[in-house]
Amino acid sequence: MIRVLLVDDQPLIRSGFRALLDLEDDIEVVAEAGDGAEGVALAKEHLPDVALIDIQMPVADGIEATRRIAADPALAGVHVVILTNYGFDEYVFHALRAGAAGFLVKDIVPEDLLHAVRVAARGDALLAPSITRKLINRYITQPLIAGAGTGLKDLTSREREAVALVAHGLSNDQIADRMVISPMTAKTHINRAMAKLHARDRAQLVVLAYESGLVAPGGS
């Protein structure tokens, strides 16, 4: 059973999402919150698999809530998905850097919402290649963060290759084809790289790949 926490300051949005999610046999909404601070508290109490968090809220916004969840080792299993009205924007960019696994636009069709929850629960990133390209474009003018590449020296050459392919938006199956290995081996390389780089998920791995200089904006 996938346990979901809903965090949004609009009760109508929460009730609509709850009604849809609760219809599924494998998904259960365990709690709702109206602001980011309450959302973090409920995440600690219920330990959901997925937290759907609105980007703009009172008390603590989605970015701050994401940052608090990502920084708490007890919440390492909570995958944050940001909800936004506007698509990819500056707020979403900062939320991904804070540790979000991806984002959804609130007018998403029901089937895509259900798919997204299941993808996030597996620990996969909700970053389509088009979104990855927007991240890349952001890094064309974004200075590197000091110390961002510290963990790269611990990666094997195959792990570095896998991370670079993740950063270009490839799935595990595509990475396996490119590296001529099995999908399971590709996943193992990625998981080991995430552990060494202290990345919560693939979305953060993409961010780290560009911040560290492992992948250059516009590179192949």
Automatic annotation (TrEMBL):
It comes from the Bacteria. Residues 3-121 form the Response regulatory domain. GO terms for biological process: phosphorelay signal transduction system; regulation of DNA-templated transcription. Residues 148-213 form the HTH luxR-type domain. PROSITE patterns: HTH_LUXR_2, RESPONSE_REGULATORY. InterPro entries: CheY-like_superfamily (IPR011006), NreC/VraR/RcsB-like_REC (IPR058245), Sig_transdc_resp-reg_C-effctor (IPR016032), Sig_transdc_resp-reg_receiver (IPR001789), Tscrpt_reg_LuxR_C (IPR000792), WalR-like (IPR039420). Keywords: DNA-binding, Phosphoprotein, Transcription, Transcription regulation. One of its GO terms (molecular function) is DNA binding. The modification 4-aspartylphosphate is found at residue 54. This is DNA-binding NarL/FixJ family response regulator. The lineage of its organism: Bacteria, Bacillati, Actinomycetota, Actinomycetes, Streptosporangiales.
